[in-house]
Automatic annotation (TrEMBL), chain A:
UniProt GO molecular function: G protein activity; GTP binding; metal ion binding
Protein keywords: Cytoplasm, Cytoplasmic vesicle, Golgi apparatus, GTP-binding, Hydrolase, Lipoprotein, Lysosome, Magnesium, Membrane, Metal-binding, Methylation, Nucleotide-binding, Prenylation
Family the UniProt entry places it in: Belongs to the small GTPase superfamily. Rab family.
EC number: 3.6.5.2
Membrane-related topology note: Lipid-anchor
Main location: membrane
Location(s) in or outside the cell: Cytoplasmic vesicle, Autophagosome membrane; Golgi apparatus, cis-Golgi network; Golgi apparatus, trans-Golgi network membrane; Lysosome
Designated name of the protein: Ras-related protein Rab-30
Cofactor names: Mg(2+)
PROSITE patterns registered for this protein in UniProt: RAB (PS51419), RAS (PS51421)
Organism, as annotated: Potamilus streckersoni
From TrEMBL, chain B:
Protein name stated in the entry: Conserved oligomeric Golgi complex subunit 4
Record-level GO cellular component terms: Golgi membrane; Golgi transport complex
This protein's record includes keyword Protein transport: yes
One GO BP annotation of this record: Golgi organization
Family: Belongs to the COG4 family.
Main location: Golgi
UniProt keyword annotation of Transport present: yes
Subcellular location: Golgi apparatus membrane
Topology term for the membrane: Peripheral membrane protein
Organism superkingdom: Eukaryota
Length: 203, 759
C-alpha cells in the first residue's frame, strides 16, 4: 500500500466558490459534482501518480475559501510543497482578492514554494470577465506558473497536477542527488536528465 | 530370384508348391505349411470354445423376448393413462380458477358492503362524536372514511341507492372540514391556555386528519416558544450571576449554552416516541428543524453575550494587530496569559456544541433508519439531515469562534514559547536549560486544549502551528546558539575544568568565554532532548487523539494522522541542529586536541633497535600521554553532556583518533620491533577507550588492529596465513592494495616480494 518514492503536499487556496473542491474531485475521482456545498475547514484527498516510472503520492489539501476558516487553512501553508491559488475567470471579484492571497503566501508559506495561479471555469466562455493575458501577466509578476482550467470539462486539470508532480519530483531528485553526493556516494550522472514531455505520463 | 520364390512359398499357393523343384525349397514349404496348419487348428479350437457361450447367450435372449413384448404393451397403457389424467387435471384446475375468481369477487363485494356499512356508521358516528366533543372518535371516523376509496364506492352505488350515499359523503366531507378547523382552533387555544394535556391531545389528532406537516409545525412552534421562554429567563439569571468569585464564573457561558442544549435534548427525548407513534417514523426531522431554529436564536444570544462580556472581539483584534505588526516593538502586546481562561471557555463551548449536534444527528438518523428500508432513499435523507445540521446558525457561529480561537491560541502558544526562551535559565546540575521543558509543556498544553474542543480542523490547525513553532521559532533559537560555535580557548584543559566546576557549583561567575562554552553544551543537550521530546509529544498526542476522535469518520482520522506525522518529523530537524553542533565541536575541540598527540606518534620512530624497544618499555614515548589527554578531555565533557550526547562525543573522538592514526601510520616506517611496539601501543589505547564507553569500540579500531597485525609479521609470506581461505572468523577491512601498502611500510620487507604476493 505505502509503496511510493515521494510524498508531496499540494494546497489549494482562493476565494469561496471558485471551484477548488471541484478541481480536486475532478483530478482525484474524475467527476464533477454539481451543486457542491461549501467546504468546511479543510478536506484532503490522495492520488498516486507515476512520474517517469516512479510512484509519487500527492496529498491534496482542499481548503475552505470562506474568511472564517482562514486561521485554520493558513496553518497548512508552511508544510505545502506546492500551492495552487485559484480564481474564477467569470468573477472579477475573485481576481481582485489575489493580492491578499499572495501576501498570505508570502507570510505563511515556505520561501520559494512552487506556486501556481489557476483561472477556473473557462467552460463558461460567455461570462468570462478576466482575460487570459491579464491572468498571465499577474502570474509572471509574482513568479507563479499559470494555467486556465475547467473542472467541469476536465480541461487542463490533469495537466495542472501532473506538471506540479513532475516539477516537485525533479526538485526532490536533485536534492537527493545533492545529499548523496555530499555523503560520498556517486550516482551515475545520467540520472539527472528528466524527461518533461507530457506524453510520458502513465495514467 | 531365390528370395522372390521364398516369398511365393510363404503364400502357400498350391500351384507354386507344385512348381517347386529344389529339395530344400520343398522342405521349407512343407515346414511352413505345417506351421500354418497348426495355427489354423488352434484358431478353430478357440472358435469352438466360444460356441457354447454364444449359444447360452442366444438362449437367454430367446427367453427375454416375451417379457419385452409385455413391457411394450404396459408402457402404452401407462402413457394413455397419464394423458387422461393430465386432461382431467386441466379441467379441474380451470374450474378451480373460476371458483377462485368468483370468490375474490365475492370478497370484494363483501368489502364494499362493509365499506358502505362503515360509511354509514362513520356518518352517524361523526355527528354524534362532534356533538359530544369526542374529537378522537370523530377524527377516527374521518380517518376511516378517508381510507375508503370514494370513487369506487360511488360507482357501485350509482344504480340503486345513490342519493343516500352522496349525502353521506357530503356529510363526511363537511365533518372533515369542520374537524380541521376545530383541531386548529382548539390546539391554538390550548397553547394559549398552556394546557399541556389538551395540546398533546390535539397534537395526536392532526395525523388522523392527514395534517402531519401542520401538526408537527404547530407543535414545533409551541415547543420552540416554550424553549425560548425558559432560555430567556435563564440568560437573565446568568447575566446577573457574573460574580467572579463563583467557581464556575470562568465557564459561565459554556454552562449556559450547555443548559440550553440539555433543554432541547430533553424536549426531543420526551416527544420523539409520541411523534413516532402518532405520526410514523421519518418525520422527526420536520420537528427538529423548527426546534433547531429556536435553538439557533438562543445560542446566538448567549454567544453574543459571551463575546461582549469576555471582550472576545477586542482581544481578537489586539492579537491580530500584534501579529501584523510583529516586529514593531512600539505596539503594546497583549499578555498571552490574559487569554488562557478565555481560550479554555471557548473550547468548552465548542465541545458542548459538537456533542449536541452529534446527539441530534444520531436521533435523526435513528428515525430515518426505521422509516426507510431503501438504502438510496435513506442516504438521500441522511444527507439532508447533515446539511441541515452543518448549515444551521449554531454551526456557523461556532465555526467563526473556532477560527478566532485558533488565531488566539496560536498567539498564546508562540508568545509563551518566546517567553520561555527569554526566561531561559540553567539549574545547577541540570544538563538542559529550562526553555526546553517549558516550551514543550506549552506546546502540549495548547494542542491538548485544542483537542478538548472536539473540532478536528481545530486540532489539525494547532498541530500544524505547533510544528511551525518548534521547527522554525524554537529550532532557530537553538541553531543560532550552536552557530555561534564553541570558542577555542588557549588552555583548553583548564577551561573545561572551569566549565565543569562552575556547572557543579551552580554559578557561572567565570569569564564570558566559559559561559559561552557552557551554553553551547547546554544547547547541544537541548537539541538532543528536544528531538526526543518531539517524538514523545507526537506519540502521546497520537494516542490521545485516536482515543478522543475514535468515533470520527475515516477522512478526519486520516487528516489528524497526517498532521501528527508532520509533528513526528520535527524530531529530525532537531537532529540536524545536533549534527551541526557536533561538527562545530569536532572542528573546534576534538581535532585541535588530537592533532598534537598524533604528531607525537609521528615523531616517535618505529624503526627501532632492541635497546630502544626496551627503553620505550620503561619510558613510554607517546601513548600514555595521549591517554591522559583523552581522559581529561572526555572527563571534562562527561558531566556537561547528556548520556546520549556523551556517547556521541566519545564516538566522534574515537573516530577522529582512528582516522588520524591511520593516516600517520601510513606516513611512518616500521621494522619488526617497531611493529611490535605499535601493536602494544594500540592495545593500550583500545583497552583505555573500552573502559570509557558503554558500547564496543573494537569495531572502530578494526582497520588499525589489522594494520598492526601486518606490521607485526615475521616474513612477507606470513600474511597468507591470515588471508583468504585462512582468514577464519576475521573479516578483512583492508583491501589487497592497502595490505601491500602496509607491508611496504616495513623497511625490512623486500618490495618485489610484496609485489609477487598473491592476494
Amino acid at each position: 500500500m505505502e509503496d511510493y518514492k515521494y510524498l508531496f503536499k499540494i494546497v489549494l487556496i482562493g476565494d469561496a466558490g471558485v471551484g477548488k473542491t471541484c478541481l480536486v474531485r475532478r483530478f482525484t475521482q474524475g467527476l464533477f459534482p454539481p451543486g457542491q456545498a461549501a467546504t468546511i475547514g479543510v478536506d484532503f484527498m490522495i492520488k498516486t501518480v507515476e512520474i517517469n516510472g516512479e510512484r509519487v503520492k500527492l496529498q491534496i489539501w482542499d481548503t475552505a475559501g470562506q474568511e472564517k476558516f482562514r486561521s485554520i487553512t493558513q496553518s497548512y501553508y508552511r508544510a505545502a510543497n506546492a500551492l495552487i491559488l485559484v480564481y474564477d475567470v467569470c468573477s472579477q471579484a475573485t481576481f481582485d482578492s489575489l493580492p491578499q492571497w499572495i501576501s498570505d503566501i508570502e507570510s505563511f508559506a515556505k520561501h520559494k514554494v512552487l506556486a501556481y495561479l489557476v483561472g477556473n471555469k473557462i467552460d463558461q466562455i460567455n461570462s468570462k470577465e478576466v482575460p487570459t493575458y491579464i491572468g498571465k501577466q499577474w502570474a509572471d509578476r509574482f513568479e507563479m506558473r499559470f494555467l486556465e482550467t475547467s473542472a467541469k470539462d476536465a480541461e487542463n486539470v490533469d495537466i495542472l497536477f501532473y506538471d506540479i508532480a513532475v516539477e516537485l519530483t525533479k526538485d526532490a531528485r536533485e536534492k537527493d542527488k545533492l545529499e548523496s553526493d555530499c555523503s560520498g556516494f556517486n550516482i551515475s550522472p545520467n540520472t539527472k536528465t528528466i524527461n518533461r514531455c507530457t506524453a510520458c505520463f502513465k495514467f | 530370384m531365390a528370395a522372390s520364390i521364398n516369398n511365393a512359398t510363404s503364400a502357400t499357393d498350391l500351384e507354386t508348391v507344385e512348381n517347386l523343384t529344389d529339395m530344400k525349397q520343398i522342405q521349407d514349404a512343407y515346414l511352413k505349411l505345417c506351421k500354418d496348419e497348426e495355427e489354423l487348428s488352434k484358431d478353430l479350437d478357440n472358435l469352438l470354445e466360444n460356441q457354447t457361450t454364444l449359444e447360452d447367450k442366444m438362449i437367454g435372449l430367446h427367453k427375454t423376448l416375451p417379457n419385452l413384448q409385455i413391457l411394450q404393451t404396459d408402457s402404452k397403457q401407462l402413457c394413455s393413462m397419464v394423458t387422461f389424467t393430465s386432461t382431467l387435471a386441466e379441467n379441474v384446475s380451470s374450474k378451480v380458477r373460476q371458483l377462485d375468481l368468483a370468490k375474490s369477487r365475492v370478497t370484494a363485494c363483501m368489502q364494499r358492503v362493509e365499506d358502505i356499512l362503515d360509511l354509514k356508521f362513520c356518518t352517524d358516528g361523526v355527528q354524534a362524536a362532534l356533538q359530544n366533543e369526542d374529537y378522537e372518535t370523530a377524527a377516527g371516523h374521518i380517518h376511516r372514511f378517508r381510507s375508503l376509496d370514494e370513487n369506487v364506492l360511488k360507482l357501485s352505488s350509482d344504480m340503486n341507492q345513490g342519493t343516500s350515499l352522496d349525502t353521506s359523503f357530503k356529510h363526511l366531507h363537511e365533518a372533515e372540514e369542520k374537524m380541521k378547523t376545530i383541531v386548529h382552533n382548539k390546539f391554538d387555544a390550548s397553547v394559549q391556555a398552556r394546557d399541556v394535556a389538551s395540546i398533546e391531545r390535539f397534537f395526536k389528532i392532526f395525523p388522523l386528519l392527514d395534517l402531519h406537516e401542520e401538526g408537527l409545525t404547530k407543535f414545533g412552534k409551541y415547543l420552540a416558544a416554550k424553549l425560548s421562554e425558559d432560555a430567556d429567563k435563564r440568560l437573565i439569571l446568568v447575566l446577573k450571576g457574573t460574580d467572579s468569585t463563583d467557581r464556575r464564573s470562568n465557564v459561565l457561558f459554556a454552562d449556559a449554552i450547555t443548559q440550553l442544549f440539555e433543554d432541547v435534548a430533553r424536549i426531543i427525548e420526551i416527544h420523539q416516541p409520541l411523534v413516532e407513534a402518532k405520526y410514523g417514523s421519518g418525520r422527526l426531522i420536520t420537528l427538529l428543524k423548527i426546534i433547531q431554529k429556536e435553538c439557533d436564536r438562543q445560542s446566538r444570544k448567549i454567544l453574543g453575550e459571551f463575546k461582549s462580556k469576555r471582550d472576545f472581539d477586542s482581544r481578537l483584534q489586539h492579537v491580530q494587530q500584534s501579529l501584523i505588526f510583529h516586529k514593531q516593538l512600539t505596539v503594546e502586546k497583549l499578555d498571552p496569559k490574559d487569554l488562557d481562561v478565555l481560550l479554555s471557555e471557548v473550547v468548552l463551548l465548542n465541545t458542548r456544541t459538537e456533542l449536541y449536534l452529534r446527539f441530534l444527528k444520531r436521533r435523526a438518523f435513528g428515525d430515518l433508519e426505521t422509516a426507510f428500508q431503501d438504502e438510496d432513499k435513506r442516504k438521500e435523507k441522511e444527507a439532508e439531515v447533515d446539511k441541515v445540521l452543518q448549515s444551521c446558525d449554531l454551526s456557523r457561529l461556532l465555526q467563526e469562534i473556532i477560527g478566532s480561537y485558533i488565531t488566539m491560541e496560536e498567539y498564546f502558544m508562540r508568545e509563551m514559547v518566546l517567553k520561555a526562551v527569554v526566561m531561559d535559565s540553567t539549574d545547577s546540575g541540570s544538563q538542559t536549560s529550562s526553555m526546553v521543558d517549558d516550551s514543550f509543556f506549552i506546546v502540549k498544553k495548547c494542542v491538548r486544549r485544542a483537542m478538548s474542543s472536539s473540532s478536528v480542523d481545530g486540532v489539525c490547525a494547532m498541530i500544524n502551528h505547533a510544528c511551525t513553532i518548534l521547527e522554525q521559532d524554537f529550532r532557530e533559537v537553538l541553531f543560532n546558539r550552536v552557530r555561534a560555535g564553541f570558542p577555542s580557548g588557549f588552555d583548553l584543559t583548564q577551561a573545561y575544568n572551569i566549565v565543569q566546576s562552575s556547572i557543579q557549583q551552580g554559578k557561572l561567575q567565570s569569564s564570558d568565554i566559559e559561559k559561552t562554552k557552557a551554553q553551547f553544551l547546554t544547547t547541544l543537550n537541548n537539541a538532543e532532548v528536544s528531538s526526543e521530546y518531539s517524538k514523545a509529544l507526537k506519540s502521546n498526542l497520537e494516542e490521545e487523539v485516536l482515543k478522543l476522535f475514535a468515533q470520527c469518520n475515516e477522512q478526519s482520522i486520516a487528516k489528524l494522522e497526517s498532521c501528527l506525522s508532520d509533528l513526528g518529523a520535527v524530531a529530525n530537524k532537531f537532529k540536524d541542529v545536533l549534527e551541526f553542533g557536533f561538527s562545530q565541536l569536532t572542528s573546534s575541540v576534538i581535532k585541535p586536541k588530537i592533532k598534537p598527540q598524533i604528531d607525537a606518534f609521528l615523531s616517535t620512530s618505529h624503526n627501532i633497535s632492541e635497546e630502544e624497544f626496551s627503553n620505550y618499555e620503561a619510558n613510554d614515548p607517546w601513548v600514555q600521554n595521549f591517554i591522559v589527554v583523552l581522559d581529561s578531555m572526555l572527563g571534562s565533557f562527561k558531566e556537561s553532556l547528556t548520556g546520549t550526547n556523551y556517547d556521541k562525543f566519545v564516538s566522534l573522538v574515537t573516530g577522529e583518533c582512528t582516522m588520524q592514526l591511520e593516516k600517520s601510520v601510513m606516513k611512518s616506517v616500521f621494522n619488526r620491533l617497531g611493529g611490535l611496539q605499535f601493536d602494544k601501543e594500540l592495545r593500550v589505547l583500545v583497552a583505555y577507550l573500552t573502559t570509557v564507553t558503554t558500547w564496543t569500540i573494537r569495531d572502530k579500531f578494526a582497520r588499525l588492529t589489522q594494520m598492526a597485525t601486518i606490521l607485526n609479521l615475521e616474513k612477507v609470506n606470513e600474511i597468507l596465513d591470515y588471508w583468504g581461505p585462512n582468514s577464519g572468523p576475521l573479516t578483512w577491512r583492508l583491501t589487497p592494495a592497502e595490505v601491500r601498502q602496509v607491508l611496504s611500510l616495513r623497511v625490512d620487507f623486500r618490495s618485489d616480494e610484496i609485489k609477487w604476493l598473491k592476494l
